[in-house]
Q: What sequence folds into this?
């Protein structure tokens, strides 16, 4: 039986041959130090910036082998990975054994339904195993593939989907499948990117474009401004480009953001990347190679004085931001003060 959801916690509103360079193993993201009151805070970024840290390349690898992922595994308590997900997501469950739910309600966020018939409840990988395989997992060790497929350290990797939606989606990426309801597309895009970033998986160009359309949306669901956590994983640094994200706090009231710019300079003080501050006051410097950077805020036509970013505040020496491959420095903020007219 399917019951319409009254309330769900949602955010707003061909493989090629193996003779390619092996993709790197899964990677961690390292967040540079930033002021505690920065925006986004340390460990928080945006979906756009997170997407831009992923390596963009065509799907690769040999023919998909589902058995290579060793899923599901049996945990120390005797329950399988799937059983753990069913138990964790069940509301008021009736158990026939410590690992078996025979009656419950399961919220299926992507369907906007609450499922009551166990036959309609599917435990799925948000990033399907075949998609992960051709995004780099084909080159992982068996242990890494097992850890990805059975990742219970977060509530995103494995999720609940109705049988119908699971059959429609298959192994599709966001080029070919989105949840039926537009209101959850932002959340789906953010979580898809979060998982790919957590495991250092690649995105193909069409997939990147489809995701960016949602993550840059600023009129209906305001996805552009919804924060997302930087995914933790205690492995080696990634291989994708890095990013610096933050915001400008203007003062006194009335100072416009339009016209302000942010520049990133490398250790030789050469300009590497520049961007305009958006009307909301935030900015993203993406596509940065690994290295040491200083950041300069330019007032431009607003009359605000230019200043270097300093973790110690205005007037102090510029803070050097060290970026590893695929890392994000968040919370990089500056207060811009307008110059009084004569």
A:
């Amino acid at each position: 039986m399917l019951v319409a959801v009254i309330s769900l916690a949602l955010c707003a509103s061909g493989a090629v041959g193996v003779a390619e360079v092996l993709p790197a193993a899964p990677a961690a993201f390292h967040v540079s130090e930033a002021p505690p009151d920065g925006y986004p805070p340390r460990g928080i970024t945006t979906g756009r910036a997170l997407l831009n840290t992923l390596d963009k390349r065509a799907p690769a690898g040999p023919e998909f082998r589902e058995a290579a992922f060793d899923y599901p595994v049996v945990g120390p308590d005797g329950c399988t990975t799937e059983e753990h997900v069913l138990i964790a997501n069940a509301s008021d469950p009736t158990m026939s054994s410590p690992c078996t739910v025979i009656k419950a309600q399961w919220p299926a966020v992507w369907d906007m339904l609450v499922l009551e018939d166990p036959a309609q409840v599917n435990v799925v990988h948000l990033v399907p195993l075949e998609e992960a395989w051709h995004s780099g997992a084909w080159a992982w060790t068996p242990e890494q593939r097992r850890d990805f497929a059975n990742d219970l350290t977060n509530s995103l990797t494995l999720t609940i989907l109705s049988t119908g939606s699971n059959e429609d989606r298959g192994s599709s990426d966001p080029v070919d499948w989105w949840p039926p309801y537009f209101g959850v597309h932002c959340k789906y895009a953010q979580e898809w990117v979060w998982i790919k970033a957590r495991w250092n998986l690649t995105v193909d160009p069409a997939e990147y474009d489809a995701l960016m359309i949602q993550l840059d949306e600023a009129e209906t669901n305001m996805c552009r401004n919804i924060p997302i956590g930087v995914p933790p994983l205690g492995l080696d640094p990634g291989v994708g480009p890095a990013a610096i994200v933050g915001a400008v706090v203007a003062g006194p009231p009335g100072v416009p953001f339009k016209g302000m710019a942010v520049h990133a300079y490398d250790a030789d003080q050469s300009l590497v990347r520049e961007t305009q501050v958006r009307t909301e006051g935030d900015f993203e410097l993406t596509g940065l190679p690994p290295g040491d950077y200083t950041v300069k805020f330019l007032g431009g036509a607003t009359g605000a004085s230019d200043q270097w970013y300093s973790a110690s505040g205005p007037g102090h020496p510029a803070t050097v931001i060290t970026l590893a491959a695929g890392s994000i420095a968040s919370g990089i903020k500056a207060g811009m003060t307008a110059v009084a007219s004569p």
